[in-house]
Amino acid sequence: MSARRSLLPAVLATAVALAGCGSEGTDLSEGPVLGKKGEEDSASVALGFPGFATKNTTRVGGADPTADAAGTALAVFAGSASTQRPRAVTLVRDSDWQAGIAASVFMSISVRAPVLLTAGTDMPGASADALDALRPTGARTLRNAQIIRIGEAARASRGREVQVRGANPYALAQQIDRLQSTAAGKSSDRVVIASGEQSQFAMPAAAWAAKSGDPVLFVRRDTIPPETRAALRAHQQPKIYVLGPPTVISNRVLADLRKLGTVRRVSGADPVANAIAFARFVDGRFGWGVIDPGHGLVFASTRRPLDAAAAAPLSASGKYGPLLLTEGPRLPRPLVEYLLDIQPGYERDPVRGVYNHGWVMGDSQVISIAEQARLDSLLEIVPVTNTAQNPTR
After folding, report:
1. N or C terminus: which one in the chain shows less Cβ crowding within 10 Å?
2. Where residue 44 falls among pLDDT bands split at 50, 70, 90?
3. Quick one: residue 91, left, alpha or beta (phi over 0 = left, psi -120 to 50 = alpha)?
């Protein structure tokens, strides 16, 4: 048995707790383990609590986005039956954040392909092992392709492949959009425009693309690249949603975009506020509209932009939910206030209530164990005292 194959039981048992450096060949056996006995030393720690999970959070604990992507894919596609495996897997270079965000659209219903990351043209151990375990069945909408290779990502050792080529990030996004339209059988009438220069403002677009199938195209602060302009023309006057404030995507660009479709801006002054604004936003069938309790949420750090692509399957399955961002070691105040605003509550019986759940992307270097515990308390359903109806309570 090969060394890679011997690791697969550990991969499957600890799918959402990968640790170590994915680009160096992740040690997949360092996460929480099953079958620890009570008399064993540190049994509770080995089981992974609270670092792996709390009552309202689950951590995908990789030391880099490569490990996070592998862990997420195995958490979402956890079974061995063909109905529990992805149709395809998307391979993206670990330096191409724009490609990762745009390619998250392949996780939507027409393909159902999670992203795995490659170290340039080399396949890291974490990605190779995950690909072996996932065994994609083939996407009928893409002539039974099992691998979608973006740009110059590494080749898989086997599987039917379709490659997306582009001379730059804007061209790659255009070609990803074209392939997604082929898979869906039509082009979307909604498009997300994000910054191709500031990743922290573009990150939330990956989650929505994965959930909705709406493509992500990129612009510069003051100009629309010709590839993006051509892609928008192919959509024939779509509804265009611009993600980011005027300091990131200028009003001049918005004016130019209005020649290509109807335009609405969704923005916050900084990356944290920008992600919250996108989580709250709704316009007909577009937008999360998360303004009340009872949702899945995904948390990632702006320090690791490709965690947006790694986490995208969590927004397109399970409890679904938008990507929210942190910037430093502590939860930013606007994020705390937003979570308090949508915190579940109950008056009589919590069993009859609704619940929030959070996925935490990355190890304790990007979101600490203490801050994960704080997230847990902000997501917890709490008793509500209705003093207006019962002043003596």
Report:
1. N
2. confident
3. beta
Cα 251–253–258 angle (5° rounding)? 95
Between CA 180 and CA 61 the distance in angstroms is 30
Q: Angle formed by the axes of helices 169-184 and 226-234, to 10°?
A: 10
**Alpha-carbon distance 163 to 161, whole Å?**
6
The β-bridge partners of 93 are 118
**Is residue 30 scored above 80 in pLDDT?**
no
List helix spans (H) across 204-296: 204-212, 226-234, 251-257, 271-280
Q: What is the DSSP string of 293-309?
A: SS-EEEEEETT-TTHHH
Reference 325, options 225, 230, 206; nearest CA is 206
Nearest partner of 23 among 167, 120, 136, judged by Cα: 120
Residue 223 structure tokens: 């100009």
How far, CA to CA in Å, does 315 sit from each of 4, 44, 58, 238, 310? 29, 29, 14, 24, 10
Using the Cα atoms of residue 70, residue 72, residue 73 and residue 79 in order, give the sign of their dihedral: positive
Give 87-137 pLDDT, tens digit per residue: 999 999 999 999 999 999 999 999 999 999 999 999 999 999 999 999 999
Cis status, amide bond into 322, omega within 30 of 0: no
Q: pLDDT tens digits for 228-283?
A: 999 999 999 999 999 999 999 999 999 999 999 999 999 999 999 999 999 999 99
For 201-226, letters b (16+ CB in 10 Å) and e give: bbbbbbbbbbbbbbbbbbbbbeebbe
pTM over 0.85: yes
Nearest Cα neighbor of 314 from 296, 326, 338, 293 is 296
Q: Which residue has the tokens 């893409």?
A: 142
> Quick check: bond before 50 cis, omega within 30?
yes
Answer whether residue 374 shows pLDDT above 80: yes
